[in-house]
Amino acid sequence: MTLRGLILAAEHVPNGNGQESVPMSASQSNPPVVACPPTVDELQRQTHERLDEIIAYCSNDQEPASFLEFEMVLLGLLRSLGCLLIQLFLRVRHDRLDPAVWRDRGYRMADHAAARTLKTSCGEVTYERAYLVPRDGGGPGVHPLDVALGLTRDGFSPLVIGWFCRLATRVSFRVASGLGEMFLGAAPPSSAIEEWVLGLGRPAYVFLSEGPLPEDDGDVLVIEVDGKAVPMATDQELAQRRKPWSRCQDGCKCQRHRGRARRKRRGRKPRRKKGDKSKNGRSATLVVMYTLRRGADGRLHGPCNKKVFGTFGSRKSAIQWARAQATRRGFPPETDKTVQIVIDGEICLEQRLRRLFRKAIVTLDVRHAQEKLWEVGRLFYPEGSAELSSWVEELEELLYKGHVRALLQRLEQELRGVSLRGPGTKEKRKVLEAVMAYLEARVKLMDYGRLRKEDLVIASGVVEGAARYVVGERLDNSGMRWIEERAEPMLLLRCIEVNGDWEAFMKWSQEQRTQELERGQTVQIRSKISTQLPDAA
Q1: How far apart (Å, rounded) are the C-alpha atoms in residues 311 and 471?
Q2: What is the DSSP letter of 482?
Q3: Please, which residues have CB within 8 angstroms of residue 496's CB and are 6 or more apart in sequence?
Q4: Taking Cα atoms as reference points, which of 476, 496, 502, 498 lies closest to residue 487?
Q5: How many domains does the chain have?
């Protein structure tokens, strides 16, 4: 057999209903209108035949010519074998299932063999199962086999749906569809993957709030809070998206000239003024929570059991999530254990955190204070000069020792040395006064000397990295424009993936769907309904 013939044979999976499995007499010219479903014995026979075919192909001395050809054909053969095994599994479960339980619940048999095509990791599989409807005629019917196996109305296996949603947390929906087609031979369109993300992301907030807790936590709890803006679609862009597609009947139909015609109909875009932003960003709040463990050397080692949470909801809701998770991890409000919170210096954020974490050590990220010192230094010394670096390093030494009052006195001296009149002096005084006011309002957050002695955290590098990795690399790419309610499930699912909890989440969400199916509900993961943003209570 040629290479193409082997590939075609591998792609064709007999379902027990074709002419190759139904004996025909000489007078019979057409197959029966209704063929019997394959039995367990027939499927076992076909499976053994396919396995023998694979072994024979691997033992063939003549073909293939290269390992590439061998592996391509083998992959198709293994997929066809997998489809037969899945059919065998479904048939065995169908034969063993007793619908009496559903009859006792008020259902009656409507169809003993309702056919269905299920797209699995090995390919499309057709199987049959019983269909029952309520005796009184009210409410949806049920397929007991689908209920027992946790199969939803999506037409795809839960594993395949999980694969594509997980892939979509790493790359765009279109790329996820293309990669799936590359490796599986077939893939759903990008619109279906996006709707799966919407449906799968709906219970993601509950999992992040009530899911399994990490084991063997450390002695010190550290919470870092920051934000990251994501480009959002403007009202004009949304109107452009949602209007019916217009097709130009005249002129060339190539992509290049279609674009020219479209730009001509649209007209020139208004030029942005200085300071105008094209991003139309909406900030997502990120919370990173981890613990540090005191070692034999007396130092704090970690981070341990790091978890990331992000939301486009209110910042208050993110802080309340952090409070609930800290309590679940053994750090309640009245705890005597050390809890440290590192923030970017926002006063309202600090006040909200202190109300929920009354005994916590709230710390200003030292990098924000350093940025202020460099801002002042550039007023007096050229950028990149040795004098500027020397001046800033001298003040940084006071900052790291926790001598913030002495630092403020140095800045006060600089301010007194600036003339009241002269070119540029007004700007210097304005910047100096603003920096001094910023540091003065946050003196209690900058006890860096004590924090360094206790080996605690003085910078928010962990959450800064999470902002770039969790949000930036997926939600802030070139050309992306999101809607908050549609970006929320993607952000939550990406947090679950980054936290290493994807397998646990899929198992947990499958249990939730199975419970809904057992209650007789119609369950489908795919959804067009946007996720409601969490709001603080």
Answers
A1: 10
A2: B
A3: 204, 207, 208, 502, 505
A4: 476
A5: 3
The angle formed by the CA atoms of residues 122, 188 and 512, to the nearest 5 degrees, is 80
Are 9 and 52 members of one domain? Answer: yes
Residue 236, Cβ density class (10 Å: 0-12 exposed, 13-18 middle, ≥19 buried): exposed
Cα-based distances in Å from 461 to 28, 309, 468: 77, 16, 11
Q: Is 52 in the same domain as 129?
A: no
Beta strands in 205-320, from DSSP E residues, in sequence order = 220-231, 281-294, 300-311
Q: What is the mean pLDDT of residues 172-197?
A: 94
40 within some domain: yes
Please, what is the Cα angle at 391 between 385 and 397, to 5 degrees? 135
Alpha-carbon distance of 488 to 201, in angstroms, equals 8
**One domain, residues 377 and 439:** yes
Task: Judge if pTM exceeds 0.85.
Answer: yes
**What does 379-420 look like in DSSP terms, one character per residue?**
HHS-TT-HHHHHHHHHHHHHHHTT-HHHHHHHHHHHHHTS-S
Residues 317, 434 contacting (CB under 8 angstroms): no
33: left (phi over 0), alpha (psi -120 to 50) or beta: alpha
| Residue 187 · residue 177 · CB < 8 Å | yes
Q: Which of 18-22, 525-529, 532-536 has the lowest mean pLDDT?
A: 18-22
How far apart are the C-alpha atoms of 264 and 48, rounded to whole Å?
A: 64
Specify which of 33-42, 243-252, 452-461 reaches the highest per-range mean pLDDT. 452-461
d(CA 477, CA 171): 10
Reported as a single tens digit per residue, the pLDDT across 314-333 is 999 999 999 999 999 999 99
Instruction: Give the C-alpha distances (Å, rounded to integers) separating 96 from 90, 129, 146, 460, 486.
Output: 10, 11, 13, 57, 42
SS3 content of the chain, % helix, strand, coil (to 5): 50, 15, 35
First to last CA, the chain: 69
Same domain, yes or no, for 71 and 124? no
Give CA–CA dist 184/202, Å, rounded: 27
The residue assigned the tokens 């409410």 is 139
- In terms of residue numbers, what domain contains 81? 3-23+34-96
3-state DSSP call for residue 360?
A: coil
Say if residues 443 and 405 touch (Cβ distance below 8 Å).
Answer: yes
Which of 96, 119, 140 delimits the end of a domain? 96
* 23 exposure class (CB count in 10 Å sphere: 0-12, 13-18, 19+): exposed
Would you state the structure tokens that stand for residue 317, as one six-digit string? 């809701």
In a domain? residue 535 = no
